[in-house]
Amino acid sequence: TETVLPAEAPDKTVSWSSSNEAVATVVGGKVEAVAGASGTANIVCTTNKRKKIATCAVTVKAKEAESETSN
User: For the whole model, what pTM was predicted?
Assistant: First the structure.
């Protein structure tokens, strides 16, 4: 969840983006890994007036398939 300061800022609207949407996407401020993908992405939050930017690097590792065993 983003917090825009100061509290009295007239426009608290932000936009989200991912540098690698094949690995991770951002929907409503929530980062989601792409199923089966592995890699890195920079998640960027930008204020509406583009004066402030926050970035977070994420690493996604694909889940290994579980093997079935027979008895």
Answer: 0.78
